[in-house]
Design goal:
This protein has about 425 residues and is an alpha+beta fold. Helix content is about 40%, strand content about 25%. The strands form five sheets. Strands 1, 2, 3, 7 and 10 form a five-stranded mixed sheet that branches. The N terminus and C terminus are likely disordered.
C-alpha cells in the first residue's frame, strides 16, 4: 500500500473514482410485474396449500391426462407390470394349492393320471409367463388351461376383465395426451408486439393473428381482457381484476374467417380501459392485455384455444403493421417473415379522451405528418438531383481528360509552329 501511495497520489485516485461514478447513469429500473399469461399461452399461476388432494383422484382420467409425459409413461408401464405380477402370484397359488408343483406328478411311470389346472406351470417364472399370455392374448401354446379347477377359470375371467379395463384407460389416456386441444394451438401465432394507431379517425389497439396450417379453424372467435390490480371504493384490493373489452368486427357475430393473417382491432372509446391513457402514460401503466382465440379444428372437430398477452412494454404507440398478403400469379401469397414488422405512422400522443374532446389534434397531427412527408420527398428529390449533377460533372471531367492538348514548337528562326500530338 505504501508503494502504491508513493506512485499514484491519493488526490488523483479520489478524483478518478468520483469522475467514474458521475459517468455511470443512475437509473432505477422499473419493477416489472409478473405476467399472468406468458407469450406462449401458459398461465403463470402456482397452486399452493391444497389440503383436499383426494379430489384429484376422484377424476383419475383427467389427472392422468394432465400429468407430464414421463409420469404418464411410468404409470403406463407399472400398471401392466403390476397386473402381470399380481395375477402371476394368483396362478402360482392356484397351481401350488392343486399340487401341480409336486415333483411326483411329473413322473410318467405314475399309474394315476394327473391333470393340472394349467399345464407346464411348475414355478413362479412359468406362472408369470402364463399371466402375460392370458392378459395380452399371445398364446404360445406351451401353457394352457384345463377344466380341472373352477378357481383357475374364475382367475382367468377376472384377469381378462382387469386387463381390458387397464387397456382402455391407459390407451385412452395416451390418445388424449397426443390429441389435446392445445397441440393444435401451436400453429396459431400472434404478433410479438401490439400497436396503437389511428384507424378511421379513432385510436385503435391492434395486433395480428395467423394460422400456419391449411386446415382451418371453424367458428373462430377472439376475446380481449385487461388484467390489472384494482382497488374498490370500499378499500378491497383485487389483485387480478379481469375486464372484457369489445373487438371491432364488422360482422354481427364475433366469429372471424381465419384463412389468412388478420389484424384484430379494438377501438379505444369510452368503454375501453385504455380511454384515459396517453403515450407518455402507457409505460407507467401496470396492466396486461390478454388475447384468447377459440375455435373448432376442422379435421378433428375438437375445440382449441390459443392465448397470449401484451404488457405495456410490448405496445408500440404510433406504429402500424406492414401488409404481408400479396397476389402473385392469381394466388394470394402470405409472407410470414414480415408477420410482426411494423412501420411508424402519424398518431397523436394524447389519450383517446383528449382526442374526442379536441378533434383538431388529429387534424394538426395529420397536417404535420403530411408536411414532414413532403419535406422528406423534397429532400430526396434534391439529393437525387445533386447526385445526377455530380455524375454529369464527373462524366465531363473524364471526357475532358481524354482530349489531347496542343503543343507549340519554337524553331531557331523564332517562328512558332503548333502541332497536335
Amino acid at each position: 500500500m505504501l508503494a502504491r501511495k508513493s506512485i499514484i497520489p491519493e488526490e488523483y485516485v479520489l478524483a478518478r473514482i468520483a469522475a467514474e461514478n458521475l459517468r455511470k447513469p443512475r437509473i432505477r429500473d422499473h419493477q416489472r410485474k409478473a405476467r399472468f399469461i406468458a407469450k406462449n399461452g401458459a398461465c403463470n399461476l402456482a397452486h399452493k396449500n391444497i389440503r383436499e388432494q383426494g379430489r384429484f383422484l376422484q377424476d383419475i382420467f383427467t389427472t392422468l391426462v394432465d400429468l407430464k409425459w414421463r409420469h404418464t409413461l411410468v404409470i403406463f408401464t407399472m400398471s401392466f407390470l403390476c397386473s402381470w405380477l399380481l395375477f402371476a402370484m394368483m396362478w402360482w397359488l392356484v397351481a401350488f394349492a392343486h399340487g401341480d408343483m409336486d415333483p411326483s406328478t411329473e413322473n410318467p411311470s405314475n399309474s394315476t393320471k394327473w391333470t393340472p389346472c394349467v399345464t407346464c406351470v411348475r414355478s413362479f417364472t412359468s406362472a408369470f409367463l402364463f399371466s402375460i399370455e392370458v392378459q395380452v392374448t399371445i398364446g404360445f401354446g406351451g401353457r394352457m388351461m384345463t377344466e380341472e379347477c373352477p378357481l383357475a377359470i374364475t382367475v382367468l375371467i377376472l384377469q381378462n376383465i382387469v386387463g381390458l379395463i387397464i387397456n382402455a384407460v391407459m390407451l385412452g389416456c395416451i390418445f388424449m395426451k397426443t390429441a389435446q386441444a392445445h397441440r393444435r394451438a401451436e400453429t396459431l401465432i400472434f404478433s410479438r408486439q401490439a400497436v396503437i394507431a389511428v384507424r378511421n379517425g379513432k385510436l385503435c389497439f391492434m395486433f395480428r393473428v395467423g394460422d400456419l396450417r391449411k386446415s382451418m379453424i371453424i367458428s373462430a372467435s377472439v376475446r380481449i381482457q385487461v388484467v390489472r390490480k384494482t382497488t374498490t371504493p370500499e378499500g378491497e384490493v383485487i389483485p387480478i381484476h379481469q375486464v372484457d373489452i369489445p373487438v371491432d368486427n364488422p360482422i354481427e357475430s364475433n366469429n372471424i374467417f381465419l384463412v389468412a393473417p388478420l389484424i384484430i382491432c379494438h377501438v379505444i372509446d369510452k368503454r375501453s380501459p385504455l380511454y384515459d391513457i396517453s403515450a407518455s402514460d402507457l409505460a407507467l401503466q401496470d396492466l396486461e392485455l390478454i388475447v384468447i382465440l377459440e375455435g373448432v379444428v376442422e379435421t378433428t372437430g375438437i375445440t382449441t384455444q390459443a392465448r397470449t398477452s401484451y404488457v405495456a412494454e410490448e405496445i408500440l404507440w404510433g406504429h402500424r403493421f406492414v401488409p404481408i398478403v400479396t397476389e402473385e400469379e392469381g394466388v394470394y401469397a402470405v409472407d410470414y417473415s414480415k408477420f410482426g414488422n411494423t412501420v411508424k405512422v402519424a398518431a397523436p400522443r394524447c389519450s383517446a379522451r383528449e382526442l374526442d374532446e379536441k378533434p383538431s389534434i388529429l387534424i394538426q397531427t395529420l397536417q404535420k405528418s403530411e408536411l414532414s412527408h413532403q419535406n422528406s420527398l423534397r429532400k430526396r428529390n434534391s439529393m437525387r438531383r445533386n447526385n445526377s449533377i455530380r455524375r454529369s460533372n464527373s462524366m465531363r471531367r473524364t471526357n475532358s481528360s481524354l482530349i489531347v492538348p496542343k503543343v507549340q514548337f519554337i524553331t531557331p528562326e523564332g517562328s512558332q509552329s503548333a502541332s497536335e500530338t
